[in-house]
Amino acid sequence: MLRFLGFYKRKPGLTHEQFNHHWLNIHGPCVRAVPGGDRYLKKYIQHRLTIDPASQEQEFVYDGFSEGWFESFEDRAAFAALPGLAAVIEDEALFIDLAATRWMVTDEHALQIDLVPEFPHPILKGPGL
């Protein structure tokens, strides 16, 4: 499983609250509504920055990030080629500073951590370990 991570900063002039509202209530449903998108996009998660009210004037590089889960690069390309994705891209331009957007792709590798009675510290198990 591949996870495409997108890191987003709000457009100048938008408050953090306006950005979060648009992303959750407008953009999220727009992604879900892409006809045929569920054939390729297995999971879509939004991680919206929540500002700690007890902190003093925090500055963050990004306002949040998303995860788009796909079985393969080919599935990601097929999703990107869907005609309905144009509405998603148009919507992004309304609230995201596209020049500041960054992407990375991760693949999923599970590591199991066990405690062995003879050695009470965690032992990592996985490929090459």
List the helices and strands and how they pair.
Blueprint: E1 2-8, H1 16-32, E2 43-48, E3 64-70, H2 73-80, H3 85-95, E4 102-107, E5 112-116, E6 119-125
Antiparallel strand pairs: 1-3, 1-4, 2-3, 5-6
Helix pairs in contact: 1-3
Descriptive labels:
four-stranded antiparallel beta sheet; alpha+beta; Alpha-Beta Plaits; 129 residues; 28% helix
Query: What class do helices, strands and sheet pairing give?
Result: alpha+beta
> Taking strands numbered 1, 2, ... along the chain, how are they ordered across the largest sheet?
2-3-1-4
Using only C-alpha atoms, the radius of gyration works out to 19 Å
CATH class assignment: Alpha Beta
Order of helices and strands: EHEEHHEEE
Mean pLDDT: 87
Q: How helix-rich are the residues, as a percent range?
A: 25-40%
Short structural summary:
Helices cover 28% and strands 29% of the residues. It is α+β, with helices and mostly antiparallel strands and 129 residues long. The longest helix has 17 residues, at 16-32.
Describe the structure.
The chain has 129 residues and is of the alpha+beta class. The chain has a single domain, classed as Alpha-Beta Plaits, CATH 3.30.70.100. Helices cover 28% and strands 29% of the residues. It has helices at 16-32, 73-80, 85-95, and strands at residues 2-8, 43-48, 64-70, 102-107, 112-116, 119-125. Strands 2-3-1-4 form a four-stranded antiparallel sheet. β5 (112-116) and β6 (119-125) form a beta hairpin. α1 runs antiparallel to α3. The longest helix has 17 residues, at 16-32. It is flat. It starts with a strand and ends with a strand. 10% of the residues are buried. The model has no long low-confidence stretch (mean pLDDT 87).
